Structure formats: structure tokens, C-alpha cells
Amino acid sequence: MPTAKMPIWSEKHLRAATHAAGVALWSWNVDTDAIVLDERAYELWGVSKDQPEVTFQILSRNIHPADLERVKSAFAATRAVVGSYEIDFRILFGKDIRWISARGQGDDADIAGRIMFGVFLDVTQRKQAEEANELLAGEMSHRVMNLLHIATALTQITSRSTATKEDMARELTNRLMALGRAQELVRPTPGRKNDGTLLGDLVSVLLAPYDEKGASVRIRVSVPKMKVGEASSTTLALVIHELATNSAKYGALSAASGTLDVSCNAHGDEIVIMWTERGGPPVVAPVAPQGFGSTLVHRSMAAQLGGTIVFDWADEGLVATLRMSKDRLAH
Question: Fewest C-beta atoms under 10 Å: which of 6, 37, 184, 229?
């Protein structure tokens, strides 16, 4: 039986293969520190081909400051590494950030004429996918914990306003169903068109489970009549939900005497929502680094609503100021 003939890999074939795989080639002269890049590597690093000589010092100008020392140490140690090595790091490419994976052989393996060889790979998409998965896992974990805290808070609120276990069971069920209605408002059934909702309806439905019968105007919502688009309603609901959860755990909504005022004003192209808590336990500003919930709120306000959220930990109660783009809110 005839054996398969091995193909002859010409330089042209290898170039086509590396280009198709997005592989960039580099070589490093261990004596002169000169680095030679192929065309793909120049593009990857954003280095001009007119550069008379490329060294690690020149490439390091594009390395993200947070990764620079780590990359320097790894680069210096490559010759001492036994076998293959790989290091992932970020580079600054204009206003964007790219993730690069540098790979090669250490311990002077396959060194030829005092020159070492290796490859660069653009792994930006993989890193972004990993970050997105980590964010999603963190958000899911955070939401599960929030649901447990909400159930506890709603049980405590309901116990203060009911006299019998039957009344408590009925009121608690109603509050949990109200949470479900709030979820349906911002995340409609698949296939059903959602043209947005009114800001006042959105806030009122989200806060309804935390109100108490018999309490004298515990939660007040005063906002102008304006439409909130489908995309922004989900984001704004997440922020309001986070504020309400924290208030039910630590703030005004955790106390029978606590009150909450939500008001809104429009200033040109900007919408400002004021979240004002009063009558709760003593307010203490957080001293630890931001938790996942706070990070998520700030990121959502900036990315989806084009705005900011600022907290004032006043003695009388928390005041949160939400500023967002009027145009973003409508979409």
C-alpha cells in the first residue's frame, strides 16, 4: 500500500498558515537585544515599520502599566525557563486594549546564531469572553444572595404589619408576586413586543413590595411622565433593585419608621433621579472596597445609561443621585 507523500512546506505556505491563524512571528537576539517582527506583529503592536530598530524597551511603551513589571520579569527569565513558556498581557492600542499571548521555547532551546524565536497571538476575544463569563457568574451569585436578603427583608416587613400567621402568609405572597410583576415589566415574555414603560410605573412597581399597609406614606414616588425604553428599563430596574435591596437590609426600609422619597427632574439633555432615605438606622459610609453590587451599579450607569451615581452618606439617611442621558433613557 503506497504511503502518503509528505507535503513540501514552502515559506509561502507557512506564511499563509500563520496569517490564517492570526499568528505573529518574532525573533530576539540575546546579545544585542534586537527584536525582529513580521508584518503581522507590527500591526498587532501598533509599531511603525519605519522604526529603525525594535527592542523590548520600545515594545514596552505599549504594554499596559499594570502588566509591565510582570512582563519585564518574564521576558528576562525566558532563557532560564526549561521548555516552552507562555505569558498573557495587555497592550494599549490607541484607545483600545488588546490581550497578547507571547509563546516560545526557553533554556536556549532551538536557539540559532544567538537568536531565539517565538510567536505572538491576539487573544483579546478569548479574554473578553472569560471576563464576560466571570462577570455573569458573579452577577448570578450576587442576585441569588440578593433574593435571599429580599425574602428575609420582606418577611420582617410583613411581620410588622400583620396580626396572624394567615395574614402574614397572604401579605408575604402578595409581596413576592409584586416582585414577579416587576420582573415581567422589565423583562417581557419572549416574542411579545415591549415599547418601554413609564418611569413612574417602573419605579412604583419595583418599590411596591417594600411598602407597608397602615404606614403613613412610607414610600413616595414623584417623577414626571416620561417613557423609559426597553433596553434602559432593564438597566434602571437593576439599579433601583440594588438600592431597594440595600435599603431593606441596612437603610430606611429596614425600619418601621423609615421613609423613602424618589423624585426626578429633567435638565436639558440630562435626567436626575434623587433617592432620599430618612428615619432608618444610623448611616455608616462603607470603608471596604466596592462590593460586586456597587461595581455592577456604577458600571451599568456608565455603560448603558451614559451617567453616574453618587452616594451621600448623610447622618439623616442615604441620598443617592442618579444622573443619566435623556436620550439613552428613552432607548
Answer: 6
